[in-house]
Each structure stands twice: as C-alpha cells, then as structure tokens.
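Lab notebook, design round three. We kept the backbone fixed and only want residue identities now. Task for the bench partner: fill in a sequence for the structure below.
Input structure tokens:
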C-alpha cells in the first residue's frame, strides 16, 4: 500500500513536471508529450494561407539572429519535417492534418501549436493568432547557440482572456531613440500583448512633429535643464535636453508595431500637462503674457521669463485655455495625428488639470456662464467633449484618464482608471469601456524592491503583487464587467533617464502582467509562475535584456506584496 502511494506520488510529480512548459503567459491548455522535434538547416517554414508571411518572417529572423540558422519560407512545401503556419479554418486548412481547432472565442487571437516528432503545426484563428503561436514556439528553443534545436513534443490550445493588453511609455520626461521603441514593441509582442500607449506630449517636452506647428518641436521639444535626483532634487543638470520623432519615424514605428500585431495609441495631453505646447505657442494659455511659474526650491537653468518648457516634475497651473484658438490648434494637431496613427483610439489625456488659471480667467468664467456649466470641472468636461466630438467626426474614439469622469463623461469615451479602480468601476456602471491601470498594481515606475539602488518615484509594487491583479473589480456585476477591455502598465519616466533603466523597471513585472491579461483566471498560479519566472530570467539573459533581481531578495517576500485589490 505504502509502495503504491509512493508510486502514485512519483507519477503525480512526473505528470506535473510533464505539464510544465516555459511558456509565459501560461497557455489556456497545454499537454506535454514525450518526444521532441529538431529544427535544423533541413527544416522549412511553410505558410498555408494569405497573411501568414509576417509570422513566418518573424520566426525566420529570430532563428537567424539568435542561432545563425536560416530557414527558407515557402508556400508549397511538405508538412512532414517542417514548421507549418496555417489558419484554423477548415477551408484554408485543407492540406493540413487537422489539429485541435482553436475554440470559438470572442477575443481574437486564439491558436494551437502542435509539436510532434514529425512536424510543427501552428494554426491561428486569424493572423494575430498565428503570430502568437510563433511566440510560444520561440519560447521553446534552447538558450545555447546551436544549429540543431530540439523542442519538446506538445499540444497547446490557447486564447487571450482580455482584448486590450497594453504597455504605456512616457517619452516626454525622458526621450528614447527609435531603436529602443522598436525593442519595446518587441517586448510587447513576445508577451502576446497588443497595445503600445505612446505618451507623446508633456510639460517637459513635446515629442511629435506637427508640420503645421513647427515651434512645437523647435521650442517645445527641448528644455534647458533637468532636476537632478528625486524631486525637488539636488540641483539642475544645466544641460539642454530633448528630442522628437519625425513623422517619417512615427510611420516607421507604427508599421513595425503592426507587423507584430501591436496597435500604437498616441496620447496628446489636454487640457493639462501642456507647458511644452504653451512654451511654443503662448496664445494657447489663459494668460499668454505671464511667465511660467517655477516651483519653489527648484534649481532652474536659463531664463524664467516668458513661457518655458518645464525642467522639473509635477503638475503645473498653466494649462490650455478653452478658447476657439486652442480648439482650432488641437483640431489641426489631431488632423496630422490621425494621418499617422490608424488606431481606433486616440488618447487625449485629461488627467491632473489644475483649475486655478480657469478660475482666475474672466474669459473662462464667462464661458462657464454662457454654456450653463456648473463650475471648472464642467468646463473640463466641455473641453473634453468638444475634442471627442471632433475625433468622433473623424471616425476615432477617445480614451482619457479617469479625471474625465469629473463634470460628466463624454458620450463615447473609454476611461483609463489610474487613481485606483473606482474610476473604472464608475465608468463601467455608466456603460463605458474601461482599461484598468490602477497605481497600486500597474505603475511600473514604482520600486519593486525594498532595497532599490536607484531613485524611483515612490510606491512599492513587487512582481508578485502585479501577478495578483485581476482587472475585473469585484464591485462589478457580470454584465458591467464586460466593459472592462483589459489592463495596462504605465511607465512614467521622470526617474528613468536611459533605456537600461526602463528595462529594469518593466522586467520581470511585464511578464507577470502578460499572464494577468492572457491566461484564464482559473489557470493562473503564482507558484507555477515562479518556476517559469526562473526560466524567464535566463531568457532575459539570453536576449540581453536588463531586469530587476528583486525577486531573489527575501526582503521582498512579505505579505504586503500579495495584497489583493
Ligand atoms: C497619471 O498617472 N497622471 C495618469
């Protein structure tokens, strides 16, 4: 009896090992086999169906870059001995041995990956699904250079949990080159995420070329210095800092992302966080002739006369005036923005807009009366609704930070809930779409270690805490929960001066986030993720990514790291 029990235990542990794969995010269903398949210079990538070449090329490029293995791509090769990328639909799939079909699922991107001793078959429900199948396959290759790559026999049947799986990046507080943005998009793609929220305008810099308004980048893209250290800082760098993306570069990035099934959503901040635009065009302010206020205790470089691009962090009083001049300016800016970005959504900011200037402005007070608005919050709502109406007329939808709830939500707006979950809950109850980015779980500018050795903005969010997040708040009914499109991590870069620090801040938390967004809730398991995370660290080393090792420090392994929302 004892012997039988022991055998059962051993068998159970073997099964549990056998059921593990290194894949992150954890697939919806996975069965490990016994044998393996070897990819070598006799293997071809065979595509069966239009639109699959992007996935084939991605796989080809990865194998070439990492192993020096160049596999031909063909549309008519044998299945036997090859990697086949196809669609799960029977009519396209005629020539492919029917594998497990992707189950019907309202969130697009399902796929199956079948590895037998004879072949590898990826079947995507659509193009993106096939691409996700390739991402899973890539994760099975070894971390040693070889031209004979052995991968385990398995059967994966997979699908995303949420439609919106995002990463944000602030390129205004600090500016990052095009090559890094491409790398960032690769990070998103490898985690089967699908949205890059590109925060392009701020008090400290305007980063998108607008041909009609050249001063936005001539003046607005550069500041005369930057606070050193944590706010209010120990001094000023006294060095001009800045940069911007040309429209040609933006098109290149949007295309690069589209080739990886990532949509780029631009954010043009309004009415607050607009000091850089105002420095370029002072007439956008309620008080064009007043100089920019420099916060007390801040070391400033250069002139404080007139309108200045901000050199330090925070929230600033000088915001867009709700005048016809400003609305015309914004419409012209958005005309160029929508030419560059095909995304359904345009993010219009809406957060942290102080109302002091509007309170002091006779024009604003008159407008409040004339339009029958309650107060300055009503004026903010009027501002957002004007912009929404314009963008809706161009076939686009707006996303705004949760402050856009104040004074009344614009009719078709999607709310990005960042000050906790309350804004998201409220918006979903009002039948508006919601993207959850609550600070306590989704802010990757927070420190992830008690023993952090570089400056961060504050907050403490471990990889385990990120993993514990569920984007569906308990307060929502099943009906209202349908308005939650997904979640996103925000990466504000006040204290990320270089790309290596950005990587450090996002890894490994982004890997945890990918599982929050992709893996069915019942499949999520921290102990199981922990095991795969060890392998993920090896992958980061293999790919040359910088990452935090806070996970290994017992100081971070405390109950507060696992608090549930
Ligand atoms: C925000 O963090 N101000 C959206």
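Proposed sequence:
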């Amino acid at each position: 009896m004892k012997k039988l029990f022991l055998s059962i235990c051993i068998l159970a542990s073997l099964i549990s090992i056998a059921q593990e794969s290194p894949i992150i995010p954890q697939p919806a269903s996975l069965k490990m086999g016994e044998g393996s398949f070897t990819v070598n210079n006799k293997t071809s990538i065979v595509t069966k169906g239009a639109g699959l070449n992007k996935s084939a090329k991605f796989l080809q490029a990865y194998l070439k870059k990492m192993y020096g293995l160049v596999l031909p791509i063909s549309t008519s090769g044998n299945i036997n001995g090859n990697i086949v990328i196809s669609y799960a639909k029977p009519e396209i799939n005629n020539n492919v041995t029917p594998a497990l079909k992707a189950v019907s699922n309202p969130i697009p991107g399902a796929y199956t990956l079948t590895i037998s001793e004879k072949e590898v078959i990826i079947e995507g429900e659509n193009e993106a699904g096939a691409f996700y199948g390739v991402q899973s396959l890539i994760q099975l290759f070894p971390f040693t250079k070889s031209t004979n790559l052995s991968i385990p026999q398995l059967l994966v049947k997979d699908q995303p949990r949420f439609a919106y799986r995002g990463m944000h990046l602030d390129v205004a507080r600090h500016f990052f080159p095009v090559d890094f943005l491409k790398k960032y998009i690769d990070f998103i793609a490898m985690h089967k995420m699908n949205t890059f929220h590109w925060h392009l305008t701020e008090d400290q810099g305007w980063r998108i070329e607008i041909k009609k308004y050249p001063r936005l980048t001539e003046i607005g893209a550069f500041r005369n210095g930057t606070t050193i250290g944590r706010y209010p800082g120990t001094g000023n760098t006294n060095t001009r800092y800045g940069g911007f993306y040309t429209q040609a570069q933006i098109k290149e990035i949007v295309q690069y992302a589209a080739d990886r099934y990532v949509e780029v959503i631009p954010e043009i901040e309004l009415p607050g966080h607009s000091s850089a635009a105002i420095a370029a065009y002072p007439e956008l302010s309620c008080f064009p002739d007043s100089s920019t206020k420099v916060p007390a205790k801040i070391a400033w470089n250069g002139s404080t006369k007139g309108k200045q691009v901000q050199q330090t962090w925070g929230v600033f009083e000088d915001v867009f005036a709700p005048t016809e001049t400003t609305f015309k300016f914004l419409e012209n800016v958005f005309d160029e923005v929508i030419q560059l970005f095909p995304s359904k959504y345009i993010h219009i900011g809406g957060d942290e807009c102080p109302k002091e200037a509007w309170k002091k402005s006779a024009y604003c007070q008159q407008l409040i009366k004339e339009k029958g608005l309650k107060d300055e919050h009503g004026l903010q709502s009027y501002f957002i609704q004007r912009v929404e109406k314009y963008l809706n007329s161009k076939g686009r939808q707006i996303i705004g930070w949760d402050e856009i709830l104040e004074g009344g939500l614009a009719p078709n707006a999607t709310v990005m809930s960042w000050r906790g979950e309350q804004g998201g809950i409220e918006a979903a109850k009002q039948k508006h779409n919601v993207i959850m980015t609550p600070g306590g779980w989704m802010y990757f500018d927070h420190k992830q270690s008690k023993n952090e050795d570089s400056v961060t903005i504050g907050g403490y969010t471990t990889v385990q805490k990120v993993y514990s997040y569920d984007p569906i708040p308990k307060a929502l009914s099943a009906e209202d929960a349908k308005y939650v499109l997904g979640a996103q991590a925000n990466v504000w870069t006040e204290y990320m001066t270089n790309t290596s620090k950005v990587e450090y801040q996002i890894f490994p938390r982004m890997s945890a986030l990918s599982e929050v967004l992709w893996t069915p809730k019942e499949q999520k398991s921290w102990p199981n993720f922990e095991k795969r995370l060890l392998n993920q660290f090896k992958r980061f080393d293999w790919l040359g990514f910088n990452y935090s090792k806070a996970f290994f420090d017992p100081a971070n392994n405390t109950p507060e790291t696992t608090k549930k929302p």
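Keep this in mind before ordering anything: DSSP finds 18 helices and 21 strands in the chain.
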